[in-house]
Every structure is written in structure tokens, then in C-alpha cells.
Amino acid sequence: MLVKLDRRSFIAMAGAFAFAPPVGADTVQSIAIGPPTDAGALVPEDFLGLSYETPQLYNPAYFSPDNGPLIDAFRDIAPNGVLRFGGSLSAYTRWRRPGADFGAVKEEGAIAQQRNWEWKLLDPALAHPAAGAITPAALRSLRGFLDRTGWRCVYGLNFGSGTIARAVDEAEHVHRILGPRLLCFQLGNEPDFWAGNPLLRGRDYSFSQYWSEYTSYVDAVLRRVPGAPFAGPDVAINLDWIAQFAERAAGDALFCSGHYYGMGPASDPRMNARKLLANGNEKLAEQIAAARRIAALTGMRFRMTEGNSCFGGGKAGVSDAFASALWGLDYALRTASAGYLGINLHGGGDGLYTPIASTAAGLVRRPLHYGMAFFAPFLGARLHACPVADGINATAYLAEGPRRRTLAIVNKTDATMSFRFADGLGLTHRPTAGRLLCAPTLDDKARTRIEVVELGGAATPTIPPYAALALHWDERPNGETSL
Prior knowledge:
Blueprint: H1 7-13, E1 14-19, E2 28-33, E3 41-42, E4 48-53, H2 68-77, E5 82-86, E6 96-97, E7 100-101, H3 105-113, H4 136-149, E8 152-157, H5 164-178, E9 182-187, H6 207-224, E10 234-235, H7 239-249, E11 256-263, H8 273-277, H9 282-298, E12 302-310, H10 322-337, E13 342-347, E14 356-359, E15 362-365, H11 367-375, E16 382-386, E17 394-400, E18 404-411, E19 416-422, E20 433-438, E21 449-452, E22 467-475, E23 481-482
Parallel strand pairs: 2-19, 4-5, 4-13, 5-8, 8-9, 10-11, 11-12, 12-13
Antiparallel strand pairs: 1-19, 3-16, 6-7, 14-15, 16-17, 17-18, 18-22, 20-21, 20-22, 22-23
């Protein structure tokens, strides 16, 4: 049931069902959680995703059916997800196969002259990655990896320095080898930043020029690979590019897309955990509003295909610490409830913000990985944002599934939190299950965990400082809901 409340009514209704703080607790902050005020959004089963720089495919042994630890790490995020290849380096990649050479002067010149830092987002096995290439063998290995994980792939072609002939040949092989594991192709990583980059485009590069080139590439690929699926470019920040693409490609492209980083640059000393976790990010609010307008006007949905906590490589002690797990969960909840098709968090190698790190000692699941895994039970449910009292740095979301309701509360403060529910939420019984996402401190890098919350006896759960709680209400045989 959806109820619209003004602030006075919300406060008056709060308290029908409360979880009290334990006796002897130090600082305890009490919050009231109101009922949803909109219809929410159905969360796609493949909402969660990861994003990698395309040259990671130069090592066929990485995304391989034989890489058991990586397969397990993907599966533990979600049984169905989306693996995206793109990033800044997608404009500086090669495609090679026996009997054909697609190395063009522009492509080789761009690869030789670029000085991108993102090469460190590749695994250690790629000691000299700029000399590598994507091959059919790498695609066959990727297919086996996707089959074992249950994930699908968004594949970014080299639209930056490559040629149409190369794109057609590569797309034909990708389409044939990946088969049903290919979700779509993309053309252009952050092309709204290409103007003035002499390695890629001229100073006056505009969306109109992009669109002309895009249609030429798409038409050429479709002549060779009828029915090949495409989606919008990975727009960096220009929301008008996303809107123009959706208007022109509605009915043809699967979705429009863009990037989002919670803060940055990483070199700015003002970038810290508290800034990352603060409510009210205007950039995110603007993107959400634009995605909703575009969907209403064109019917085209939005997927965030590359993003993370802090652009510029991530912030040490934040992007690689528990703060990133709390941010990642909260970000997933907010964008899913706003109607996004999905999110792809960027990473790879031993980068600070990567959810899964590849080091010389082996694979490491970073705290952000746990934040993504904590979100997985919300897949396939209808998710609503619930109002929380003004001025409190916390968020709440209600998920409604076929036989279960789940409430998530994210405490982004340094105080223990108790909570009470408004009548409109309909959560009038004790929950039967609960989970807690927590760590000893915000900057902890090794002890993030997901704990089962014991709900029996007289004690009722509170939320520790900087932690997230999910409570589940299962449907009783008589149709009543209880947690």
C-alpha cells in the first residue's frame, strides 16, 4: 500500500513498530521510517554488474572457465549479472585473428602516444599490455567464463581509434562466439570528452558528429551481422548527449547509458569517507531525474555502465575500505528504486576501487564486493525508497517480492541507530530473518563481513554506527506478512 504523507503526518504515525536500543548503549539515534510515496521500480535480475578495461581480454586465462576463484567471486555477487568491457583503454585496443590484419595508422599511433593511467587496472599477468591484442581464443575463453557464471556481456568496440572494417570483423566474431551471452555492443567510451583529444577526434566534436559516425558503424555491422544488438555510448557527464541519443535511437538501441563516480578527483584532499557517504549528492540526483525524463519521453531505460566511489583511480583508505561497501550498497538501492536497468562498478587489477583485486598473491575480494553481494536479495523485487527524518544521514528501502518483504536501513552516521515504523509500512510483526553489513571501522580493509542477525528472545536489533541492516518478513500460510 502506498501512502502520501506530509512531515507532520509522518511523525504522528511513526512508532507503530519499534526496535529499541539495548540497555547500556552509548550514543543512540532514533529514526522514524515512513511508507513509500511512489510505485517504486522492479529490480531486474541482472541489475548488478562489473566493468573492466577492454585490454583485460589480452590475457585469455583471466576471464576463463578455468579461473575458479574469479568465477566464485562473480557468482557470490549475483547469479545473473552483466560484465561490461569498455573504459578509457577501449579506444586504444587491437583486434587480431589469423589471416587478417586490422592495424590502422590511426589506431597504432594512438596506442603508441597515449599515456593513460588505467593500464594498472589490468591483472599482473599482463606485464606489457600495450603490445597485446584481443583474439578469437580470448573470446572463446570469455564465453566459457560467462557460461559458468551465468552472466552476460556488454562489449565495447574500439570506436575511438579503430576502423569500421575492424569493428565489423570483430563484432562478427564476438556475436558468433558469445552467442546468447552477448547482451549488446557499445560504441564510444566517454565520447563527450573526445573534443580536443587529437588522438581521437577534433576540437569541435559534437553529438551530431558522433551520431553520424555511430549510424555508419551500426549499419555496417548489421549488414554483416543482422540483428546485432546495440546500446547507447558510455557518456561521461553530458546528460544532453544521453537525451539526444535516446530520442534518435528509441526502438533500436537496448538502453542509453552513462557513468557515475561518487566523488573526485582522488588527488583532492577533501575527498574522504564522510563526503562519499553524505546524503544529497546533486550529481546523482540530476542523473536520476534525467533518466526518468528520458524514459518517460522515449521509453528508453538507463543503465550506469561505469562508475565507482572516486574518479581518478580511487581514494586510498576509502575506495579500498569498508566505506566503499556501505556506499556501494546505498548506491545500488537508490538507483534500483529510481528505475535504473542496472549498474556496472568499474575495476580490475589491483586498482584501489576494484571490487575484486588481482594481485601477485592471488584474487582478493575487497569490501565493495561484500556491499554488492548484500544487495543481491533485492534482485527481482519491487523496490521503494522510504522517507527518513530530515537531517539524518541514513536511508531506508522496502522491497516487495512474491512471498517476502525486505527492509534495508543504511546507517551512515557514527551513532548506534534504533528505528520505528509508520503504520503505512504494514510491518507489524517481528522479523524472522536479518543480515548485517559491518566492519570494525570505516577505513578497515580486511574485516568486512555479512552477519546473520539473531532475532529471537527479548532483544531487538539496532544498527551499529556505519552499518547496514536488512530485515525479512516472510508470508505466513494465511497470507499475513511477518518478518
